[in-house]
Every structure is written in C-alpha cells, then in structure tokens.
Amino acid sequence: MSSPITDAALAFERHLRSERGRSEHTTRAYLGDIRNLGAFLEAECGVTRLEEIRLADLRSWLAAQSQAGAARSTIARRSAAVRTFLGWATRTGRIAADPSLRLAAPQRDGHLPAVLRQSDASALLEVAAVASDDQDAMHLRDHAALELLYASGIRVGELTGLDLDDVNLDAGLVRVMGKGGKERTVPFGAPAREALVAWLSLGRPQVVKADSGPALLLGRRGRRADARQIRSALHALLRHVPDAPDLSPHGLRHSAATHLLEGGADLRLVQELLGHASLATTQIYTHVSVDRLRQSYRQAHPRA
Predict the structure, then answer these.
(1) Fold of 118-248
(2) Residue 69 neighbours by CB distance under 10 Å
(3) What is the predicted pLDDT for the residue at 145?
(4) DSSP code, position 215
(5) What is the mean pLDDT of each run of 10 residues along the chain (304 residues)?
(6) Strand partners for 174
(7) Which of 130, 156, 237, 302 sits 20 to 30 Å CA-CA off 31?
(8) Residue 295 and residue 272: Cα distance in Å, rounded?
(9) Would residue 240 show up in a list of annotated catalytic residues for this protein?
C-alpha cells in the first residue's frame, strides 16, 4: 500500500541511483531500512507522513532493533540510512526540518569478521588449485576468482563486475569500479595471473555463449557470475582447510588487508588498494595486526 513515506522512498531510490552513484547493494540496503522504518512508524507510532516523524520516533525504532537482537553494525547502518534519507527530504523541500540531526547511532564494535592466517590463505588457494586440475570450467573460475580476491583485496561485487578489458595480464593490474562510481587500479601477483590465464584459456571457452558479453567471470550457463556463486565456492573450499574459519568473500578481503599490514605495507597504500574513502576505515586493520602481535607475544614470551 502506498503512503507518503513509501512514495518518498521511491524518489530517494532514483536519487541514490542517478545522482549519488551508490552501488546496487547499498541502494537495496538503504531502501530496505527505510521501508522497515516506515512500517514501524505506522504500526507503533501511528505516523504515515514524513512531516510527522519526530526524533523520539526514530530513537524508538532503533531501540526496537536493538531489543530484537540486531548487531550494533546493523543498527549503525540503519541509522546512517535514515539520516541520509531525511537529510535528502529536507534539502528537496519535502519536510521543513530534519528530525534525525540529533539521532545518535551506536558505535560500531570495531571488530572484524574472522580473518585467515597466512598459512590458511595459502592452504585455501592450494586446495582451489588442486580442484582446478580436472580443468572443469567452474573449478578453474573459482580458483581464478579466489586468487584475484586475495591478491587484490577487491570486493566480491567489484570482482563479478569485471569485464575482460579490465584485466591487464602483462602488467598484473586490474581496473576496478568501486563504490560511488570511483575507479581505481589494483595490482595482482603471479599466482593470480596464472590462475586467470588458465581460466581464460581453458575454462571460459567451455561455457561462453554468443550472449555472454564481456564479463570476465561466467557461470555454467554462460551468464556473468554473481556474488552468490563465488561465496558458495569459497565456503566449499574452506571446508578442506583444517581449523580455518568459515569466511565470506568479504572476510577474504579483510584477510588480504591484514596480511598486507603484517607484511609492512603502508596504511595509505592499503587504503588506496581497498578503495576506502577515509583512512579511518582502513585503520581498523591495524587493530587486528596489534591483536595478533599481542597473542603471539603471550604465547611465545616466557614472561608474558
């Protein structure tokens, strides 16, 4: 059923897509958060119009999320979505004043998902390489995908969005379209190059169709591979790495960043590789490195 809030959300969606250049994932998440807010306001507060929303209503909504067991990071994202939405509504004259200006979101925990040890990352990629020895197209694709994810630290959505001409095998560089439509170039090493060559020469020709287009990675039916397929492959391969945590592709990105810093990479270099707009986002990886140093110290030093 249409309401002033849902009608405004549709206009906001067009704004996110056309003017802000937000990714499909971010747009979908923000709209889901706004619909969730609209449903709560109508059911719990009797509010159906934008101009009726008050700060207390927004605080009640976030409190309900917390009581329902939502993670602090989820609540922080939902708070950010609503502030963006109501700020836009104010700028476009839909409401006279923004009720979310004093809406405080919980601080993020600052904890990253589990990351692989460097030995586990090597074992994972070895498992993927062995699986690809049968030259099955999907095994070759999965090996290339995981090698490139770990080598470059790119997001899985960026990976599946790659086209053939985005990859320069000779130079070991990949051109990535990141969040907000920002382009960056990221290097990758010899193992990723070898896996990509195998996929392109042996795997992709097995599944490519006339309408496959320029997509770098394809599924079994010749369509562009999606994040779900890469995620499933990663989960399946990790089962063969003893004691390794079960990670998502984003966890592999976290692992790459952590290992870069542990290897002595400059923080700003890692920021550039990951495509973070703010250095503060990248700095969380330094906490992981320090935690690992502390853990190793306690295990190894006789007077720890």
Answers:
(1) hpI Integrase; Chain A (1.10.443)
(2) 7
(3) 97
(4) B
(5) 75 80 78 89 85 89 84 83 91 91 66 78 95 96 96 91 96 86 88 97 97 96 94 92 88 87 80 76 63 62 58
(6) 167, 186
(7) 156
(8) 28
(9) no
Taking the complete model, does pTM exceed 0.85, yes or no?
A: no
Say which amino acid occupies 219. G
The catalytically annotated residue of 179, 184, 224, 240 is 179
Q: Which of 155, 193, 254, 259 is catalytic?
A: 155
Bridge partner list, 186: 174
Does the annotation count 221 as an active-site position?
no
Cα distances from 238 to residues 1, 49, 65, 247, in angstroms, run 44, 49, 33, 8
What do you get for the CA distance between the two ends of the chain, in Å?
63
Q: What's residue 111's pLDDT? A: 55
Provide the residue ranges of all domains of the chain, joining segments of one domain with +.
4-91, 118-248
- Please check whether residue 151 is in contact with residue 191, taking contact to mean a CB–CB distance below 8 angstroms: yes
Helix-, strand-, coil-residue percentages of the chain, each rounded to 5: 65, 5, 30
Distance CA 35, CA 53 (A): 14
Helices (H), 24-71: 24-40, 55-67
Known active-site residue 250: yes
Give 4-91's CATH code, choosing from 3.40.50, 1.10.150, 3.90.320, 1.10.357.
1.10.150
DSSP letter at 224 equals B
Query: Tokens 């969606």 map to which residue?
Result: 13
62 close to 105: Cβ distance less than 8 angstroms: yes
- Number of Cβ within a 10 Å radius of residue 124: 23
From the list 141, 193, 253, 254, the catalytic residue is 253
Distance (Å, whole) CA 261 – CA 18? 36
Residue 278: other Cβ atoms inside 10 A: 8
CB 215 within 8 A of CB 163: yes
